[in-house]
User: Fold these one by one.
Assistant:
Number 1:
Amino acid sequence: STREDRRQRQMCKETVAALKNEDFHLEEVSFRPTAENFAYYFYKELTDLGYGVHYVEVYETPNNCAVYEEE
């Protein structure tokens, strides 16, 4: 493990601790956390719960989003 790797891991731990301290709810996912992947994830989670979801939009910025829908 390099010095840079250790520094990044420590920064990650500090960031997570700071978010938890501010009462953020953090959820770990098993996939790369992109807007596209989250749109798919939320679509599947909601449809699996029985909701009649037509599509899901996940915004990365106020002007940029990813959409998932099934045909």
Number 2:
Amino acid sequence: VLPAEPPLPPRLVILDFDGTLADSLPRLSVAYADVAEQFGLRRAAAAEAQALRGSDAKTALRALGIPRWRL
């Protein structure tokens, strides 16, 4: 039996941060809820989260009342 060869490194990695290739909002919402609970942050209501979709981080943090020093 021949030894297994190590896998080749990927030649291309695609990152999708705006939801063009996949709708990541449901997973992001769950992750944020977990972090909010762990660190005592205010959770965003569903309508608020939808309204913040597409906002930059500074705008979202301000809307959620999260000071930058907590990052």
